[in-house]
Amino acid sequence: MAAKTNKKQSSREKVRNYRERMRARGLRPVQIWVPDTRTANFVDQAHRQSLAVAKSAREREDQSFIDAITDRGQG
């Protein structure tokens, strides 16, 4: 564990120390980029895609598959 000092650590030092401790535990950082669900473009695309699925000839089969693999916390 890091030695305690009276001096306040900067944010940069805190992050560096935290990462060092995590690496010492055998972990490594991973960064993941995901779509921003708050944007209008995401909302538009999600709506467009859901309509396409709903209008598909295989809609019932597709929905049955989704229902089958969805974890609803019932077990």
Structural summary, described in words:
The protein is an all-alpha fold and 75 residues long. Helix content is 53%, strand content 0%. The radius of gyration is 23 Å and the shape is elongated. The mean pLDDT is 90.
Concise overview:
With 75 residues, this protein is an all-alpha fold.
> What is the arithmetic mean of pLDDT?
90
Distance between the termini: 41 Å
Biggest β-sheet, characterized?
Answer: none
Strand content: under 5%
Poorly predicted tracts of residues: none
| Shape type | elongated
The helicity comes to 40-55%
- Assembly classification: single chain
**Roughly how many Å is the radius of gyration?**
23 Å
Q: SSE order in H/E notation? A: HHH
Number of strands: 0
- Helix/strand-derived class? mainly alpha
Query: How many alpha or pi helices?
Result: 3
